[in-house]
């Protein structure tokens, strides 16, 4: 499962080192909401690893999926992940790979080790493994030395301080701290997400939002527009600006 991030890159290296004569395939599921530099990184690393790269997509981006499903994805229900990552990958795997001959490798490191208990159940009857959790346990930051040896630059979003390299640097599961970072470091992407959220609210004719406002003991939708305005007004009551949240594509039910 090749996401375009440092963790899955390091996982691919470990798999190739352990099974040098195996038929290893790098599989990427494209949300069509990615940073342009992600594709450069995918193809350069696949070439250097001398492994085939399979790129899957149903042609839609996350906003088209939300519109078609009449539902705005959020932290509790990331419909974008289910449709554009899990379902499209599962269809491809079931069509081309036999469970008895296939192992699915996921690039989660020790910080996400708790997910290793759930993931195998989601992909039965296929065998699942986690190369970064093999002994010795690896941290995704170890990818830097391999990239230096290959002469490959890490994805540009990491240079800006992004916690992952998916969906252009944002995620419907992002925490307040992540969104604050995006507003400061990739304001063009934040503005696009803000506009898309407003467009979808109008299309659905519903008071829906990615975020929640919990001030006053009541929970209500908080749009990205409202979040931005609150930050600029320094109205940060009950905003957790240290919480980055997480990108859990391919890992959750």
What does this structure look like?
This protein has 253 residues and is mainly alpha-helical. The protein has two domains: 6-159, HUPs (Rossmann fold), CATH 3.40.50.620; 167-232, no CATH class. Helix content is 42%, strand content 8%. The chain is built from ten helices and six strands. The longest helix has 18 residues, at 79-96. The protein starts with 5 loop residues before the first helix and ends in a 21-residue tail after the last helix. The mean pLDDT is 92.
Q: Determine the CATH superfamily of the largest domain.
A: HUPs
Mean pLDDT across the residues is 92
The CATH topology of the largest domain: Rossmann fold
Q: Which strand order spans the largest sheet, edge to edge or round the barrel? A: 1-2
Give the biggest sheet. 2 strands, parallel
In one word, what is the shape?
globular
Indicate how many domains the architecture comprises: 2
Strand content: 5-15%
Helix content: 40-55%
- Stretches where pLDDT is under 50 for at least 5 consecutive residues are none
- Order of helix and strand elements from N to C terminus: HEHEHHEHEHHHHEEH
Radius of gyration: 19 Å
CATH class of the largest domain: Alpha Beta
CATH architecture verdict of the largest domain:
3-Layer(aba) Sandwich
User: How many H/I helices?
Assistant: 10
Short structural description:
This protein is mainly alpha-helical. It contains ten helices and six strands; from the N terminus they run αβαβααβαβααααββα.
């Amino acid at each position: 499962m090749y996401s375009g991030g440092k963790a899955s890159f390091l996982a691919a290296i470990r798999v190739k080192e352990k099974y040098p004569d195996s038929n290893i395939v790098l599989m990427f599921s494209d949300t069509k909401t990615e940073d342009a530099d992600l594709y450069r990184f995918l193809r350069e690393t696949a070439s250097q690893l001398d492994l085939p790269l399979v790129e899957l997509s149903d042609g839609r981006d996350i906003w088209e999926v939300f519109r078609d499903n009449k539902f705005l994805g959020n932290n509790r229900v990331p419909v974008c992940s289910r449709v554009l990552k899990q379902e499209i990958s599962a269809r491809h795997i079931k069509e081309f790979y036999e469970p008895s001959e296939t192992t699915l490798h996921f690039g989660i490191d020790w910080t996400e080790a708790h997910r290793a208990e759930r993931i195998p159940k989601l992909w039965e009857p296929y065998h699942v493994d986690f190369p970064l959790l093999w002994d010795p346990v690896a941290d995704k930051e170890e990818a830097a030395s391999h990239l230096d040896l290959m002469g490959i630059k890490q994805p540009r979003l990491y240079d800006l301080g992004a916690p992952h390299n998916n969906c252009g640097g944002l995620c419907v599961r992002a925490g307040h701290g992540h969104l604050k970072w995006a507003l400061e470091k990739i304001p063009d992407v934040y503005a696009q997400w803000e506009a898309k959220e407003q467009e979808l609210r109008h299309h659905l004719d519903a008071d829906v939002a990615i975020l929640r406002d919990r001030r006053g003991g009541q929970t209500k939708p908080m749009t990205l527009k409202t979040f931005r305005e609150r930050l600029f007004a320094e109205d940060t009551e009950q905003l957790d600006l240290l919480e980055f949240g997480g990108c859990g594509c391919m890992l959750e039910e």
